[in-house]
Design brief:
Length: about 325
């Protein structure tokens, strides 16, 4: 039978319809399960990427109380750990703080607490010895030891070097002063040893003479700034000055003191309890003594014939022994 006949009889027509229905069903399944599945992937990916972004963290005020340091001493440190931060300083309550997130504060707070440690205290003992005989062989030998490797273990029961103790016992030196001072690491300590020398000045006011008594500070001035290092050694910046009256100058029937000044500056490093010594700042003075015959020496014009002058030159040196000890 021909295809036309099969079509007319309905066999081929029925088969074509069945195939067409099958194709429609297959396309429906593909659209329902396959195409929808592909479309649904993009929204899921976008949602997951959004969840990975950090949420906005709240900014709160965080404060910390200082236990050992002062607010004025910690400002430079705060700038070093966070230069762009706007630090809040409370001098009255000794607190510092910052408006920031909790995550950032958790990083900064341990650094502040580590810096806020107890500041070491240092006791400084200064022993000043005046040597009146600078030509003594023992003194000269001691100076040579200072210029080389000085052995600080060779000391007497008083803690002074043996040769210095010998000079004191023989009357060629004297222990002038032994001041003690307690200061914090990094703080400047000032020690003054000396006298105030009075002198008189006369002022003419409304035809009347008025005398004023003035004073001039003489003696030793020491400025010491000790700093304790991590290895427990001590750095010391020492600024030393010595001022004494070297004579008197007469001007318009008034006498004014003539001063001699000496100063030096040095930096040393030593262990706690180990002394350092320095010397060599010589002081040379000249004293003039007038001896006269009673009554005759005071006569005008001829009184000088009954007078004699004696000039005495005195040269001395000061030895300094400084001992810093961490408390």
């Amino acid at each position: 039978m021909s295809p036309i006949g099969l079509w007319k009889n309905g066999w081929l027509k029925q088969g074509f319809c069945d195939v067409l229905k099958l194709i429609i069903v297959i396309l429906g399944f593909v659209m329902l399960f396959g195409f929808n599945k592909v479309i649904a992937i993009q929204p899921i990916v976008d949602y997951q990427s959004m969840t990975k972004k950090d949420p906005v963290k709240p900014v709160v005020l965080n404060m910390i109380s200082l236990r050992h340091r002062r607010v004025s001493d910690i400002q430079s440190f705060l700038r070093s750990i966070c230069m762009e931060c706007e630090w809040i300083l409370d001098d009255h309550a000794q607190r510092v703080g910052l408006q920031t997130t909790q995550v950032k504060w958790d990083k900064l707070r341990p650094q502040i607490r580590q810096y806020d440690q107890r500041i070491p205290l240092i006791q400084i003992v200064v022993e000043v010895v005046e040597v009146v005989d600078v030509n003594d062989a023992t003194y000269r030998h001691f100076l040579s030891e200072l210029s080389g490797a000085y052995d600080s273990k060779k000391v007497s029961k008083d803690g002074l070097p043996l040769n210095v103790q010998y000079l004191i016992e023989s009357g060629k030196a004297a222990l002038v002063s032994t001041p003690r001072i307690l200061t914090q690491s990094g703080q400047l300590a000032t020690i003054r040893i000396g006298d105030r020398v009075p002198y008189t000045t006369i002022q003419v006011s409304a035809g009347a003479n008025m005398s004023n008594v003035n004073y001039m500070d003489t003696g030793i001035s020491l400025k010491i700034k000790p700093v304790v290092q991590r290895n427990r050694r001590i750095d010391m910046d020492i600024d030393f000055s010595y001022q004494t009256v070297n004579g008197w100058r007469r001007h318009q029937s008034q006498q004014y003191p003539m001063l001699a000044n000496r100063s030096t500056r040095l930096r040393v490093n030593t262990k706690s309890g180990v002394p350092i010594m320095f010397a060599g700042l010589l002081d040379s003075t000249q004293h003039e003594q007038i001896q006269k015959v009673p009554l005759l020496g005071d006569l005008p014009l001829i009184g000088v014939l009954f007078q004699s002058k004696k000039t005495t030159r005195r040269q001395s040196d000061l030895l300094y022994r400084i001992t810093p000890t961490i408390q």
